[in-house]
Amino acid sequence: MPDFARTDDSSPVTLDRRDGPYGEVVLRRRGDDFEIIANGCFLMDTSDGRSERLLIDAALAALPADRTAPSVLIGGLGVGFSLARAAAEPRWGRIAVAERERAIVDWHREGPLCGISGAALADPRTGILTVDLVEYLRTTTDRYDALCLDIDNGPDWTVTEDNGTLYSPAGLAACRERLTPGGVLAVWSAQPSGNFEQALRNAGFISVRTEEVSVARGVPDVVHLALRTL
Question: Which of 43, 102, 140, 230 has its CA 20 to 30 A from that of 133?
Answer without folding.
Answer: 230
